[in-house]
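Office hours follow-up: a student asked to see two folded examples consecutively, so here they are.
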Amino acid sequence: MSTLHLEIVTPETRIFSGNAKFVVVPGIEGGLGILPEHIPLLTEIHPGELSVTTEEGELTFAVGEGFLEVRPDRVSILTDMALKEEEIDENAAAEAVARAESEIGKGDLAGEELATVQSTLLRSLAQLRVKRRNHS
C-alpha cells in the first residue's frame, strides 16, 4: 500500500514527521479520513482525536484547533495542541474540564473570555477521550 508524508506541527515543535497509510482528522463536520492520492484540500480542524496508521501500527493524538492541508502525497496539520496518548495527564485534563465547566456554569462570561474557556474545555475533553479510550 502506498503512503503519504504527514507533518503535525504546533507553535512549539514538530510533533510528528513521517509516512502514514491512513489519517483520520477531527474536521469541522466530523472525522475526515485521508488516504494517499486524496484530492487537495484545505480545512479547519477542531479539538478531538487524530488517528494515524503507519507501517509500524496506530498512533493516536489529542489535537486542538488548527488547519489541515492535504495534497496527493502529503498532509500537513497545524494545530495549537497535539499530545500523544502517553503524554496526557488524565487528572490534569479532568481538573481543567471541571474548572471550565464551572466558569461556564456561572453565566458571567461573554465574548473573548467565553471563547477562551470553551476552547480550553474542548481541548481538555479531547485529551480525556484519547486517554480513556485507549485505557478501557
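And the second, which I mentioned at the end of office hours:
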Amino acid sequence: MWVIAGLGNPGKEYEGTRHNAGRELLLAIEKRDGTKGKLFGKKALVVYPDVYMNNSGGPIKKLITSKKELEHLAVVHDELDLPLGKVKISYGSSAGGHKGVASVQKALKSQDFVRIRVGISGSTPSGKLKRPDPKKIVDFVLGKFKPSEQEKLKKAKKITSEALELLVTEGRDRAMNEINSR
C-alpha cells in the first residue's frame, strides 16, 4: 500500500499559493480518482499533514514504521527548480533546499522515498527555467497563482495524476521512466 502525502500549509490564507501546489493538486486528484482507502483502484493512504510545511516530517513519521513502508511513501510538493507545468519524480535524492522535504527526511532519517516535484517557477518563452529573485523567494512561494498561470497549472495536475497512477499501478521505476522522459 502506498502512503501519499501532499505537502502544504494549512489554513484559508494559504489556499491557492504556489507553496501549496503539491497539497492542492493531490487533493483534486484524490477527489476525482480516489475512493476511501484507494487511489486509481489500488490501496493507498492519502494524507495532508495539518502542520506548516516546514514541520511535515512529524505527522508523516507516525505513518511510516518500517523500511518497507518507507519504500512506498510518495511526497507531492512544490518545486522551485522546475517551471510551472513540469513535473518530475525523484527517489533517494536530497531535499534541494525544500524545507518541507528536509523535515520529512530528518524525521524519517532517510531520503529513500519518492518525491513528486511539481514545478512552480516561471519560464522563458523557450521554456527554460526562470527562478524568482532569491531575495523574493518567500513572497513568491507564498503568493497565489495568477489567472494567466491556470493553464500551466492544469497541465501540472494532469501530469501529476498520470505520475501517481503509474506509481500505484506499475511501480516507481515505470513512473520515473515515463514521467521524467517528457
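Two things to take away from it. The radius of gyration is 15 Å. The mean pLDDT is 95.
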